[in-house]
Amino acid sequence: MYKPPEPAQYMPGALAPEGPHHVVQGAKNPKLNGPITFRYPTAFEEVLIGSRAQEIASGGRATPVRLEALPLRARLYAEAIATLEYVIKNAPEGWYTRGTDGKPLLAPGLIGDGDEEKVLEVYDAFLRWREAFRGRPAGAAEPDPAQAVVRGGGPGGGDGPVADDEPGGAGP
What we know:
2 domains
C-alpha cells in the first residue's frame, strides 16, 4: 500500500506554517469536518506529486494512462489526491485510514459516500494558500514591450502609438 513520506523538515519561514489553513464544513461524514493545516512541498515532492498523479490515472493498468488523456474531472481528482497526500500536515480523523502497522495513513483518495467534492474543496484551499505566498510586485507593472505598440497598451491606456499606415499616422 502506498505511504506518503514524512513531512519535510525544511519549511520556508515566510510561509507561516501554523494553521489551520482551511476548515471543512458540511461533509456528510462528520469525521471529515474540521480544520486542515497544509505544508509547502519540497521541489522533490513536487516531482513525486506528478508521479503519484500519473500512478492514480493509470489505476494499476499494465500500460500507463497519460494524465492528460483523462476527462477534466478525473484529472482534477488525480491531481488533487496526489497533492493532498503530500501537503496535508494535520486533518480531521476522516481524512486518514489505518495502515498495515495500525498507524494513521493520510488517504484523501478513499473519501466517498457523497463527500468526494470535499477533496476538490480542500485542494482548491491549498492552491489558494500556496498562491498567497508567491512574490508579487507592488503597484502597477510597466507594460511589456509588445504592449507599448498596441492601442490602449500603455500605462494610462489611451490610443498608444499609431502605425504609419493607419489613419492619423505619419504616413507618406
